[in-house]
Structures are given as structure tokens and as C-alpha cells.
User: What shape does this take?
Amino acid sequence: MEKRQDKKQERRKRLEEIIPDDGLRTEMLSRLYQGDPILGQKGVFTNLLQCFVNAALEGEMDDFLQQSKTGRTSNRRNGHIEKTLRSTAGPLSIQTPRDRLGDHEPIIVKKRERELSTGLDEVIMSLYARGQSVEDVRFQLQQIYGLEISAGTISAVTERVWDEITSWQHRVLASCYPIVYLDAIHYKVREEGTVTTKAIYTVYAITTEGQRDILGLYLGESEGSRQWGLILEDLKRRGVEDIFFFSVDGLKGFKEVIEHVFPRSLIQRCIVHKIRNSTCYVSCKDIKAVCSSLRQIYTSANREQAEIALEAFGKRWDTKYKEIKPSWEQDWDELMAFMDYGDNIRRMIYTTNPVEAVHRVMRKVTKTKGAWSNDKGLIKQLYLTLKYNEKSWKHGVSNWHAIQRELMERFGDRYSRN
Assistant: This one.
């Protein structure tokens, strides 16, 4: 019995230290027991935080006036300035004390500030990065925190990231990347009263340390090899000197622009894209059998066996689907480039699926959008989306040590010096 009483007294003592005001303490405990909300405009914690901030501001003024006496200057209090602060706990009504000489500079809430530094900007950025529109963000902040924030304020917060985007887009890159994946994704943007389709060119790479990284997002008109050539030139300007493998889709002219900018690079045509294109006119009843025959080609041990498998494919399917075999023969060198390497490197370069996985992250939060009001808004949305979803695309390559050994063996000094 005595132990219980001791514990009660200890709990009461702790509460008195945290909330000295008897009335406020009783009110807050009563509201907690009633199940009132913790945060928001009428939240229990909001009231406590408001009292804490006001008490801290009074303490700042007391300390300032005490120091003024030490310096032999005549100064004293001169009332308060009332204002409402935005915070993640809800709106706070605070009273900032003033001094007669106007020399006091508050630290917790500076002059002309309207927001308590509780991470509200980060909350706005996070909501926006997850595909919320400005109006959606306004609604969420009002519902969760009881805050009324204008669309202009939210836009101003998200606009602050633009300098970061510019710096990221122009940062200096490493001199060498073993593998780079190139692909584009398309979005609709309003331009001069009409909606046009534009391409976001994504350059996704694996570093010499086995880490994945996005080297850049470039906005342009519909995807074309000429634009890719300009992007590759930009990579060179930013410090890239050597790339071992490019994994690309079947865009016309891709090979020529890559060889022009990086003549020593090996070009691997995406096998998955090729299969998709080869089977687009195959009847449903044959699709599994055709795919199985194609699989015998790209899973062969070497080029010679792959050629034998291609001949076998032709004997079986030329009568019904005569266009498939010639299309593989036409792109044979680019399709079979991965055959000259071990299984680990083969798995990494045979498809552009890694960069398409990045595009899935982008589509996940942008699929509900009709069209962006301008190019800048689109880039800002995509950058924040990738920044807040790094775990899904920025991670190390599995079995990198084995891959590294083969890179050392195949590329020698080209790899080791980097």
C-alpha cells in the first residue's frame, strides 16, 4: 500500500515539474482521459506546446534584461506582441515580450517569423513528393494539424527546392561508370493553352563501388536519338570519361549516337523489349510456345549456341511468323553483346528493367495527374518523388564483389584506375 502511494506521489511530482500550473495540469489530464485529440487546432499537446513557447520567450527576455543590467544600460519590459504561429502541433497563439529600447532579438521565434521550427516545411515537401496537389496538401494540413495555409505559401515552400534541383542537375560526376541504363517516360504538360506530351529522359547508372545512382533527369520533346546524343554530351561535360556498358531499348539511331560520344562503350539491346516487340502480333494460343523458343536463344551458353537456337526457332515458326527471325538477325550484335560475359554481368545488362523500376516509382505518385501546368512543376514533382523514395531505387548491387572481379579481368586499367 505504501509503495503504491509513493508511486502516485512520484507521478504527481513529475507532472508538477512538467506543468506547474495546477489548472492547466488538471484540464490536460481530464482531456487525455476523455480521449481528446493530441494534435491539431484543439489538441491537448498544442495547448502545452503553446504554454511552453510563451514561457521560453519570457525566459529569454528575463535573461536579456539581466545582461543589460550588467552592461549598465537602462532597459525594461514594454508589453507584448501577439501573433499566431504555424506548427505541426497546430496553430499556436504566442505573446512575444518587447523591451523599451527594442534591442531584444528572440531566438526561439524570431521577429517576423510565422512558423515554429517543428518540421512543417518537411511535412509539406513530403506530402507534395507523394503526389499530393497543392490543394490536397492544404486539405491534409487542415485535417491533421488544424492549419489554414494558403496555396501560395505551400507553393513557396516547394519552390525552395529549385536551387537544390539545379545544383543536382549540374553536379560533377564520376569519371567512370560500369553500366548506364537509358530510357524515357512521357508526361503531359500545358504549353501556351494546349496540352503537349513531353519526355523525361532518365540516366540511371551503377558506380564503380556498386551503388545505383540517377545521373540526371532531362526534359525534352518526344523521345529521339538526337536528344539522347545531347544528353550524353552533357554527361561528358560533367566529367564522365568512360562507360563500359549501355543498356538501351530499340530506339532508332541509339547505337550511332552512343558510338559517337562514347566509342569504346558496348551497347546491349534490351532483350525484354525485343521479346515484347517480337510477340505483339502472335496469337494468344501460340504466345507461350513462341516465348519458350525465344528463351532458348537468349539463355544459351554462348553466341554459337544462340545462333543454333535461332535457326531452330526459324524452322519451327517461320511458316507462321516469318517476320520474327529476320528482326533478331538484324539486331543480332546488339542483342547478343551480353553473351561474352559471365552470368553476373549478363543479369545486369541484358534488360533496361532497372531504369523502368525507377519509372514505376515516378508513375506511382503521378498516375492521377492529368497534365502539369509547366515544365518546372513537372521536374520539381519528379525530383521530390525520387528524393523521398530513395530506398526503392538507391541501393547497392547484390554480389558486387564477383562482378568487380570480372570487370577487373575484362577491362583491366580502365576499371582499376577508377
The chain has 19 helices and seven strands. The first helix runs from residue 2 to 18. The radius of gyration is 31 Å.
